[in-house]
Design brief:
By secondary structure, the protein is of the alpha/beta class. About 50% of the residues lie in helices and about 15% in strands. The chain is built from 13 helices and six strands. Helix 3 crosses helix 4, helix 5 runs antiparallel to helix 6 and helix 11 packs antiparallel against helix 13. The longest helix is centred in the last third of the chain and has 17 residues.
């Protein structure tokens, strides 16, 4: 049943990869079992890929390039589009922008920003969402989310800022151990040269002005040095590029950052919470 649904929902890129892989396999007079053996897969896995019952994974695309690609680079090129099509539709346009950003500044109020999530945290978060996500789709979403972490090590390195509400650090998904692992990972990322992580403390509202009451946002400086803002509200993605609106949101973000703990104090809090037993 799941594989039949996969065939119905397979993307255009998945169908193109399947057709091309089958054509190249047949040109080289390989059976599905023979190609599978060369790639480290079963013949049934190759068959599932060629019928889109189980579209090619990123690893399979790499192996297809090595075995039947013939140096054309088409399967390498397909990796980008296959990955992009695994994101929710609302996020795809922003995902391309994020991957090439010069600067990325995020404020998150409910969960750890997806760019910083561990595999276990992402799986628990996606698996517990509503309405429920089918297992295959959940794994695709986890894979796509983890792939975003390539941004940390991109050359040239982008500047990445993250401001988290303190409540995010205290809200577990999956289990407390999953949460502690996530906090340890966040602490490690916070110490990268191109990353700054700050925490907006719970008692900020008691101290006067609280600038973060209108929700999460991401500010991006694109590779063309344009300034845009991305927000998500109830499964709807909103991309704002109008300069006056972007400027107002940038000022609000700056106020939120000013009200947050310093990077060093934020790191200390994250490390302390990561070490707490539950």
């Amino acid at each position: 049943m799941a594989r039949a649904k996969n065939k119905e929902e397979a993307s255009g890129t998945a169908h193109l990869v399947a057709t091309l892989a089958k054509s190249l396999r047949e040109q080289q007079q390989l059976t599905q079992s023979e190609l599978g053996k060369l790639m480290g897969y079963t013949g049934s896995a190759v068959s599932a890929m060629e019928t889109c019952a189980q579209p090619a994974s990123d690893d399979m695309l790499l192996k297809l390039e090595e075995t039947v690609g013939g140096g054309l680079g088409v399967f390498d090129e397909a990796r980008k589009w296959m990955l992009l099509e695994k994101y929710p539709t609302r996020f795809r346009g922003f995902a391309e922008m994020e991957a090439e950003a010069v600067t990325l500044s995020s404020y998150e109020t409910l969960v750890v920003d997806g760019l910083f999530q561990t595999e276990a945290y992402a799986r628990a978060l996606i698996g517990g969402s509503f309405p429920p996500v089918p297992e295959q789709k959940r794994e695709e979403l986890v894979e796509a989310r983890l792939a975003r972490r390539k941004l940390f090590d991109r050359d040239p390195a982008p500047m990445i800022e993250l401001i988290l509400e303190e409540s995010v650090l205290r809200r577990p998904f999956g289990s407390w151990e999953v949460q502690r692992e996530q906090l340890r990972s966040l602490a490690q990322d916070a110490q990268r040269d191109n990353v700054c992580v700050q925490v907006l403390p719970l008692d900020r509202g008691l101290r006067g002005t609280y600038a973060g009451d209108r929700g999460s946002m991401k500010l991006v400086v694109t590779k063309e040095h344009e300034h845009v803002v991305y927000m998500e509200i109830e499964d709807q993605g909103i991309l704002i590029s109008d300069p006056p609106e972007v400027s107002q949101l940038a000022h609000r973000y700056a106020k939120i950052r000013a009200q947050a703990l310093s990077p060093d104090d934020s790191l200390s809090l994250i490390e302390r919470l990561a070490g707490e037993e539950r």
